[in-house]
Amino acid sequence: MKIFVNGEQQRVAERCTVTQLLEALDIRVKHVAVERNREVVPRADHSDTRLAEGDELEVVTLVGGG
Questions:
Q1: How many CB atoms lie within 10 A of CB 55?
Q2: Which of the listed residues 5, 14, 29, 46 has the most CB atoms within 10 Å of its CB?
Q3: Are 41 and 48 in contact, with CB atoms under 8 Å apart?
Q4: Closest C-alpha to 5, from 30, 25, 31
Q5: 3-state secondary structure of 34
Q6: Tell me, what's the pLDDT at 31?
Q7: How far apart are CA 65 and CA 40, in angstroms?
Q8: What is the pLDDT of residues 11-58, one digit of tens each?
Q9: How far is the C-alpha of 37 from the C-alpha of 53, rounded, in Å?
Q10: 56 beta partners
């Protein structure tokens, strides 16, 4: 199915979860925020939140520095 991640179209398997999406995108950082259709998905819900056709996600990682 088609979804949008940070404005770019992506294809993912049916019933894909947020966790599976992050793994497929090779995003393995501890500090990541995910917004689905303008609502934040709590980290505790990533593995239970299934994506749907046309979902729009914003994935943001925190970068430290000085």
A1: 20
A2: 5
A3: no
A4: 25
A5: strand
A6: 86
A7: 25
A8: 999 999 999 999 999 998 788 999 999 999 999 999 999 999 999 999
A9: 12
A10: 4
Question: Counting every residue, how long is the chain?
Answer: 66
The Cα 26–Cα 9 span in angstroms is: 16
| DSSP code of residue 44 | G
**N- to C-terminal Cα distance for the chain?**
40
Residues 17-53: b if buried by 16+ CB within 10 A, e if exposed: bbebbbeeeeeeeeeeebebeeeebeeeebeebebee
**Residue 14: predicted pLDDT:** 95
Alpha-carbon gap, residue 21 to 34, rounded angstroms: 11
How far apart CA 55 and CA 18 sit, in angstroms, is 11
Specify the 3-state DSSP secondary structure of 36.
strand
